[in-house]
Fold this sequence. Notes:
The structure is a homodimer of 337-residue chains. The first copy, chain A, has 337 residues and is α/β, with parallel strands linked by helices. Chain A has helices at residues 7-14, 18-25, 36-48, 55-62, 78-93, 107-119, 135-143, 165-178, 194-207, 223-234, 249-261, 295-314, and strands at 67-72, 97-102, 124-127, 146-149, 159-163, 183-187, 213-217, 243-246, 271-275, 289-292, 324-327, 330-332. In chain A, the strands form two sheets. Chain A has a six-stranded parallel beta sheet with strand order 2-1-3-4-5-11, with helices on both faces. A six-stranded mixed beta sheet of chain A has the order 7-6-8-9-10-12, with helices on both faces. In chain A, helix 11 links the parallel strand 8 and strand 9. The longest helix of chain A is centred in the last third of the chain and has 20 residues, at 295-314. At the A-B interface, helix 4, helix 5, strand 2, helix 6 and helix 11 of A face helix 4, helix 5, strand 2, helix 6 and helix 11 of B. Strand 2 (97-102) of chain A pairs antiparallel with strand 2 (97-102) of chain B, so a sheet runs across the interface. The structure holds a DNA duplex (30 and 30 nucleotides).
Amino acid sequence: MLEKTTLAAISERTGYSVSTVSRVLSGKAEKYRISQSAVERVTREARRCGYRPNLVAQSLRTRQSQTVGLVVPGIDNPFFATLSSIVIAQLDARGYHTLLADSRESEEEERQALEMFQDRGVDGILAVPVASSPEFHEEVGQNVPLVLIDRYFEKTSLSYVCTDNYAGAYMAARYLVDKGYRRILAIQGVPASMPNRERVRGFLDAIKDRGVESRVVGDAFSVENGSREALAAFAGNPKAYDAVFAFSATILLGTISALRRLGLTEGKDIGVISYDNNGFLDFMNPPVSRVEQPLREAGEIAVDTLFSLMEAHLSGLPRPAPVQQLVMPTLVIRESC
Amino acid sequence: MLEKTTLAAISERTGYSVSTVSRVLSGKAEKYRISQSAVERVTREARRCGYRPNLVAQSLRTRQSQTVGLVVPGIDNPFFATLSSIVIAQLDARGYHTLLADSRESEEEERQALEMFQDRGVDGILAVPVASSPEFHEEVGQNVPLVLIDRYFEKTSLSYVCTDNYAGAYMAARYLVDKGYRRILAIQGVPASMPNRERVRGFLDAIKDRGVESRVVGDAFSVENGSREALAAFAGNPKAYDAVFAFSATILLGTISALRRLGLTEGKDIGVISYDNNGFLDFMNPPVSRVEQPLREAGEIAVDTLFSLMEAHLSGLPRPAPVQQLVMPTLVIRESC
DNA sequence: CAGTTTTGCGCAAACGATTGCGCTGTGTAT
DNA sequence: ATACACAGCGCAATCGTTTGCGCAAAACTG
């Protein structure tokens, strides 16, 4: 390590005041009409000793951190991992860093994360909300730009970017019905979450009045839930249902393992369709039909939205009208149904 | 929002000095012998106006941020997603927050991330390194506690916690050989990365002098690489190899899709084994044999190690001897070979 | 040459917290 | 009465930046 490399140090070594050094090194030289010679002297010294601004001090003074907080319900879930990856890349491209928190589907942890984000002075927040009601998020949204992703609240003034889960589930269910399946089991994720509720609604609407027997079971976006609920629902009778709709790729994995235990092969003995577009769905045997969500698009729109909120916030403008957008998923048919 | 909630504000409203308020609210009341009445008056007011300390100011003053930086080569890779999840949970449990950066396998981005971490005054860094040589990491490690995970450098004074990739690959290859496979194709990941090099070494050592024909191809831990390289290596001849060893689960997916195109079924026409323990491997048809890495264990050890480094760093002690640990993977045999 | 403009730069306050040191006032021992 | 201990608290410096304001010297104007 070299000498301490602060503005003060450079100031001492160049003979210029801290102010001048600061202005030069933050590129405000001509705005403040610093002489060519000063600029040179200072930049040279800065380079020589490898000056790097202390971002903490900078944040304190400017009330900007070049950081956004991202909170997701489970980074180990490939869905959120992909989403995070997209979002982080976007932020990075704009010169922003990411504080990542994992709420583990817990309202309490989510709350703590949001609070921590504020205490750290993040410039904006992206959240996949877990809470059942929007109050807290709205309160936070008052203070710092906030955009919801993937999940949203019924009636809220917050911005959100989600996929149309109603439409996705509707398409999938309608496809099954049209294919002639008549006893359909749906295995859902976290029941209270908005995407899940919408999927249930889409599913039920699609089969309504179509002479289809149906049932919705389950309570988590996890492999275990898929397996457990499938086994319980079939109750040992392989003919109990002729199709299964798994509400996520993780659920699907569990479901398939259960079906195999029952001696059923997807696409042959039973129709199977899933939500999500995890890479492996095409590599299962047989490949699995699914509702693909335009994650990249959603992530990009969310970041765009956040930045426009942040810009307004910076300029002290009133909060712009919320952007509330649903992007459309697509149905991808393979050989499992 | 209520009034501004700073120490100064509370100081004014209670009549006590900022120092006293600070000491009360940071729990140093009896250390500094603050009167019971003052404590009460201050805490009451703090609660009333919902005081939350400004962590940025706190960081600036104390030179501690309660934050560690985590940099991985690709958070969308399930392997790193799982690892991150484990690490983040651990840190969270200890009251630390996580700045996450994605180097996307780029040395340059990794460098930037590490630099940013320092500029932000993180208390420690966990890195899955991408660089081919340790210099930069070692330099960083001089200034802030740093522990490598999953990948390490040949000769370094840095601490690391990795899995024994040599042993893992050796076990897998030896198993294939013992099972009678004689023409084995290995599809590797990023060739320069330490885990990959070790896997290659383990693989080659295991088949040496066993009368086995072999070839190592590929250059990335990706689905495409797996598919492309498998197709190229078989060159249309399904009998070209009788077994394939995929060096990661992502590679495996690509490989399987290629094998299917060649009309081959794993476990029947060809032996297949993979690295990694992604959830889906058990749900493929047939389930895939693999080398499972004790990720949770590795993550926990890494965090433990980091904290002991951090503790020493705090107390101004000399850097403790590096902890350099390999944890042992396990061979899980299913029906693919 | 006096007056005005421009150029180039520094002073000092601020951001919000932490902390070493010292000050005052009361109680106790001598 | 003098000394001393200690309880209870505040002063002010500090962390490293940023920035409004103003000042002096140089340059220009008429």
